[in-house]
Amino acid sequence: KKLKIGTEHGQSDFMRRERNVSQLDVVLFGCGSIGAQILRKIMEHRELHAKLFHQQYNVKAIFDSSGFVYNGSPTGDQKSSIHDATLMHVLQWKHDNRNSLRVFRDIGYYYTDFDRMRTCLLGGNHTILIDASDA
């Protein structure tokens, strides 16, 4: 039986598909021009990817040459991601001031913190690593 778009049954089918969206964590290495563009595209197309491909990309951490930002517990919170408003602030921070991410307020970390946080940052079957660094 064919459904017309906008019918009650069609809407509930859409809502059912929305609940089955896979959550994918993104860890980005590099926050220069390429890394910044990747972040913008993730935020810009998040809803489209969820609707068409049933996948939602959530940014978990961003690394630069001297540190990283991570919006989770340093002891192992694996369900955290950085809110879009904070991502926009990070992009502005890097673009305007060329400051290191390690000194970004509240969520900046030094590389020395990485070893104890490695599992929560890079662990999990649903983590995607993207290298947009110059190295």
Helix content: 40-55%
Largest sheet: 5 strands, mixed
Distance between the termini: 55 Å
The largest beta-sheet arranges its strands as 4-3-2-1-5
Instruction: Say what oligomer this is.
Output: single chain
Strand pairing plus helix content: what structural class? alpha/beta
Low-confidence stretches: 1-16
Number of helices: 4
Described by the principal axes of the CA atoms, the overall outline is: globular
The average pLDDT value, as a whole number, equals 82
Radius of gyration: 17 Å
Walk me through what this model shows.
This protein has four helices and five strands; from the N terminus they run αβαββαβαβ. A five-stranded mixed sheet has the order 4-3-2-1-5, sandwiched between helices. It is globular, with a radius of gyration of 17 Å. The protein has 135 residues and is α/β, with parallel strands linked by helices. α2 runs antiparallel to α3. β2 and β3 (67-70) form a beta hairpin.
